[in-house]
Amino acid sequence: MALGDRRTEALCLMNLGSSRYHQQNYHESLDLLEAALRIFKSIGDQYNEAIVLSDLGNTYAALNETAKAFGCYKRSLKKARAGGDTRTEGSCLFNFSLAVYAQGKTDEALIAAEQAWTLLQALEDRHAEAVRRQIETWRAEVDRSQ
Hints:
Elements: H1 3-22, H2 26-43, H3 46-62, H4 66-82, H5 86-102, H6 106-122, H7 128-145
């Protein structure tokens, strides 16, 4: 199979995995995303590896497999930073912040979300506004609890 065909296959698997995630079919999502990750690794596509790892983190977080989720986010951040991909870095930081918040660690979630917002805002990414709103919500919760 040609390199372009393998990349296309992996992109399709990644998209299917994302679709299954949004349908709450988390185990099927994991299978598809892991298959995509294997292909991206085999062809040396670190850009898409970083994206898939963040998606895997989200899926593990949805399954309350926190250690696996955080491991995926860490690997995603490392690859995104190594490749200079600030959009994926920002997205992954925000995903990480949501998982950390779900663990009751609002201060740590705020730090990661603020880092994400800084990166995404600089890129004029459409998700920056949603991140900003989430930060405001968490700050208001902290203020109410003090």
